[in-house]
Amino acid sequence: MLQQSERLKEKYLFDLAFKLGKTKKQKLSSKYFLVYYLLSRRETRKGLPKCGFVVGLRVDKRATKRNLYKRRMREAYKLAKRKLTIIDNTKLFALICIANPEIKDASFSEIKDTMEKLLTRVVVGNS
Questions:
Q1: How many whole angstroms separate alpha carbon 114 and alpha carbon 46?
Q2: Long-range contacts of 83-87 (CB under 8 A, 24+ apart)
């Protein structure tokens, strides 16, 4: 479970990240999921970004399976942010990770590696 300060719960932030991700190309995609990100207006921002995970009905109709994929994505994010110590002082404000249907066939190590690559691209590209 993510810490309370790291959870993206506000609807307006979800909407803003989706909107800017589509219009300003603030998104990255991979085989297993799509990442929308929202940048802060300040030069550097203290603290970790807020993060939300979405697994839709098109991935799997069973809630237990969707929750499994969310847990895997959350854990992969936690492990990736430990490796990326510079994620703490970037302009990154919010992340939304949306699962693709291909995540059903992925192992945890593949999800973890993909998450690390995408987070590295987001952080290094926007530092």
A1: 25
A2: 83/116, 84/116, 84/119, 84/120, 84/123, 86/123, 86/127, 87/48, 87/49, 87/119, 87/123
Q: Which amino acid is at 92?
A: L
Tens of pLDDT, residue by residue over 55-100, are 999 999 999 999 999 999 999 999 988 877 666 666 778 889 999 9
Residue 50 pairs in a beta bridge with 94
Structure tokens at 74: 């959350």
Judge: domain 34-125, CATH 3.40.605.10.
no
Question: 109: which residues sit within 8 A by CB, 6+ positions away?
Answer: none
Separation of alpha carbons 83 and 33, rounded Å: 20
Contact 89, 72 (CB under 8 A): no
Residue among 91, 84, 81, 86 at smallest CA distance from 126: 91
Q: Do the strands 92-99 and 50-54 form a parallel or antiparallel pair, or are they unpaired?
A: parallel
On the question of pLDDT at 48 being above 70, the answer is yes
